Amino acid sequence: MGNKKTGPDVFGKALEDTLAGSKSERRSSSTRSLSQTALLEAYNELEKRIKRPFACGGTINITDNQDSRPKAKKQKRNAIPGKTSPPVRLFWATETGATAHKLVLPADSTSVLQKLIKDCVPATFGRGKKDVLDPEYRRAVKMDPNNFATSFHPANFGIVENVERILLPRINTEKQNSLGFRKLRVELYSLNVYSGPSGLFRKHVDTPRSKSQIGSLVVCLPSKFKGGRLTVQHARQHSKFDWSTLSDAAIQWAAFYSDCKHEIETVTEGERLTLTYNLYVTEPLGVFSAPNNIIQPKSLPLYGFLEGLIAEPAFMRLGGVLGVYCSHAYPHSSEHASDMLPIGLKGADLVVYSVLESLGMKVKVLPVLNKNQGPVKTVGKKLWGCSMNHQEVDWGYYTIDKLLDGAWDAYRTKDITWISNPKHLELALAYPTYGNEPSLDTAYSYAAILAIIPPFDQRSGSAESS
Ligand SMILES: O=C(O)CCC(=O)C(=O)O
Ligand SMILES: [Fe+2]
């Protein structure tokens, strides 16, 4: 049976051929067209572009309602795999009490589309401190989100997630990146229509609505048009989004940082409809420390269960320590770990921590070494940054305590009641070992949530009152 994996290594062969070819080119240096300096500049530029993306975009094909085949079959290759959208519905009413109109895009009716355009207002833009109307600079109409609603939402197609992955890292500091818990919040800002033969928006920068705004998202709804290319500029780089070819077959989008200049070239034919969104970076989700927290630990199913358990005299009558290994991976041995945990806990870990804390227990996230299996566990006294230890250790003669006393201070105990199994390891320590050859050994740790349960007679009334 033919197995692709054991077949010829096409990539490897091509790699070898290419390497051999480039070697012979290097030898015949007279054939080189770029000067050494220009080449270096090109590599620098390439590095910059790789490291600092400033815009991104994508396409979501529209499926027909009747059958689920993508309308843009020919252009299927451009689509995000598995992401298609039914036609987009727009509802609007500009006067209070008026019945709403409905438009399905790609336009099911030219007259309804024209009605929508008639109900829009001429689009202004900010010039200095003023909002100005200047069709030479911006020729478009717009509608405020108070007056319309749409079936489209960027979160449904993974757009927000993708923008987060590409544009958010550079916005965060290294510290915040180490847990990557910042998120984007997307706020619908406007519906715009640029119509042929003269709709356009000359070069401008979007006015930030608040300090936390980091960029804009433009979503082009399916409607036939020509021209109208969006160009986004950052330093000397340009990203171009030509949405005319797929204009009535797909939803197409672009996101870019707030400081990027951008422009829309003249729409020569048809109607170019866009939804614009402001992108904000959200503050860390600290369930337990944020005063405006939106999750109440009491609403979590675990709360009632643990509350009941703690009320039982038989449960840790003399007090004890509960240990729960984190179920998500965190860079808990990174340099910034102690700033980022527990605030960056996710999912089940966040639930465990916040419920225990709101029941009045003392709770902490600590590292547990995986070196010594068995009942005795080595628990770091704090979240240590991963370190290189210079003290020699011979595992045969010394215990790890000797090493740990200094750089990685720890408790050694078998008295923690563990209620889950360890999951994600992180490098915690590296140290030279004693032997007939120099060698380095490593120790890894797991992050765990530890809660101190007081003796039964001190437990009542410790839970948060609501
Ligand atoms: O429609 C577009 O492509 C972008 C619109 C725009 O730049 C804006 O509304 O500020
Ligand atoms: Fe803009």
UniProtKB/TrEMBL annotation:
<dbReference type="InterPro" id="IPR005123">
    <property type="entry name" value="Oxoglu/Fe-dep_dioxygenase_dom"/>
</dbReference>
<keyword id="KW-0479">Metal-binding</keyword>
<dbReference type="InterPro" id="IPR044862">
    <property type="entry name" value="Pro_4_hyd_alph_FE2OG_OXY"/>
</dbReference>
<protein>
    <recommendedName>
        <fullName>Fe2OG dioxygenase domain-containing protein</fullName>
    </recommendedName>
</protein>
<dbReference type="Pfam" id="PF13640">
    <property type="entry name" value="2OG-FeII_Oxy_3"/>
</dbReference>
<dbReference type="GO" id="GO:0016491">
    <property type="term" value="F:oxidoreductase activity"/>
</dbReference>
<feature type="region of interest" description="Disordered">
    <location>
        <begin position="1"/>
        <end position="34"/>
    </location>
</feature>
<dbReference type="GO" id="GO:0046872">
    <property type="term" value="F:metal ion binding"/>
</dbReference>
<comment type="similarity">
    <text>Belongs to the iron/ascorbate-dependent oxidoreductase family.</text>
</comment>
<feature type="region of interest" description="Disordered">
    <location>
        <begin position="57"/>
        <end position="86"/>
    </location>
</feature>
<keyword id="KW-0408">Iron</keyword>
<feature type="domain" description="Fe2OG dioxygenase">
    <location>
        <begin position="185"/>
        <end position="281"/>
    </location>
</feature>
<keyword id="KW-0560">Oxidoreductase</keyword>
